[in-house]
Amino acid sequence: MQNKVVSKNLLNSTKNSLILAKNGCDIMKKKRNILMKELLMIKDKIEEIQQELLDFFSKAYSDLRDANISLGLFTKELASVVEEEVDLNLTYRSIMGIEIPVFQRLEYKKPQKLPFGLHASNSLVDKTYLSFMKVKVAIVKYAELETSIFLISKTIIKIKKKINALENLAIPKLEEDIRDMTTALEEKEREEFTRMKIIKEKKIL
Question: Quick check: keyword Transport in the entry (predicted)?
Answer without folding.
Answer: yes
